């Protein structure tokens, strides 16, 4: 595997300023559970992480999993500057750049009791040009390892929790479409045309006739 990854990185450096090609839906690697990372890449891992971060920024996106660049290992990167509006119903708070090795998440109950799910439009760099509404856990506990192998154990809420769920699902061979309301599926052009006035998908749910739960 090291030789194949090194070749991928070399070709990206030579042809595209280090930006990796993003695999699109239909490729088997996106539907195959990623292998747990146990050091398979050795000293190549930091170089891969740098390339994944560069690719994520260039797309642009807020997360990228290794299967999305054709590598079936449980490695992901996430980063989001957050939203300008404090009243964004998505709770889109800043998520600093981090590397997640072997991540997992579990839903957490809200402080008042019970778990809560939030439904919003979501897209994916591997399903280029489309978005759909996905109901996800609002509050999750993330467990992973960072680039140095140190343990990550963190509670995330709102949009950062959604990003982590999305990228971790990639490592299980899942796409966001597996969890989406199919009737909400829209081209990104129509998302802007019809539904960009608000990040709240309630109007879309009423017109397109899909549930938000």
From TrEMBL:
NCBIfam families reported for this sequence: PRK00150.1-3
Keyword set includes Transcription: no
CDD domains according to UniProt: Pep_deformylase
Organism phylogeny: Bacteria, Bacillati, Actinomycetota, Actinomycetes, Micrococcales
Record text on cofactor binding: Binds 1 Fe(2+) ion.
Name of this chain's protein: Peptide deformylase
Keyword annotations: Hydrolase, Iron, Metal-binding, Protein biosynthesis
Location of the active site: 167
Organism the protein comes from: Isoptericola luteus
Cofactor(s) listed: Fe(2+)
Gene designation per UniProt: def
Record bears the keyword Calcium: no
Purpose: Removes the formyl group from the N-terminal Met of newly synthesized proteins. Requires at least a dipeptide for an efficient rate of reaction. N-terminal L-methionine is a prerequisite for activity but the enzyme has broad specificity at other positions.
Reactions that this protein is recorded to catalyse: N-terminal N-formyl-L-methionyl-[peptide] + H2O = N-terminal L-methionyl-[peptide] + formate
Enzyme Commission identifier(s): 3.5.1.88
Family per similarity comment: Belongs to the polypeptide deformylase family.
């Amino acid at each position: 595997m090291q030789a194949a990854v090194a070749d991928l990185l070399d070709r990206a450096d030579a042809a595209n300023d280090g930006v990796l090609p993003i695999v699109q839906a239909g490729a088997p690697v996106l539907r195959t559970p990623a292998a747990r990372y146990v050091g398979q890449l050795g000293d190549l891992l930091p170089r891969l992480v740098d390339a994944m971060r560069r690719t994520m920024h260039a797309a642009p996106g807020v997360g990228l999993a290794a299967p999305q660049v054709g590598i079936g290992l449980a490695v992901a990167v996430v980063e989001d500057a957050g939203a300008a509006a404090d009243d964004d119903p998505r709770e889109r708070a800043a998520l600093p750049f981090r590397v997640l090795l072997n991540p997992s998440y579990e839903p957490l109950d809200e402080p008042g009791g019970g778990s809560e799910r939030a439904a919003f439009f979501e897209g994916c760099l591997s399903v280029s040009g489309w978005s759909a509404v996905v109901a996800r856990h609002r509050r999750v506990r993330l467990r992973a390892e960072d680039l140095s192998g140190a343990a990550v154990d963190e509670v995330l809420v709102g949009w950062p929790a959604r990003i982590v769920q999305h990228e971790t699902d990639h490592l299980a061979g899942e796409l966001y479409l597996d969890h989406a309301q199919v009737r909400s599926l829209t081209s990104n052009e129509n998302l802007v045309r019809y539904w960009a006035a608000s990040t709240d998908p309630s109007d879309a749910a009423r017109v397109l006739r899909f549930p938000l739960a």
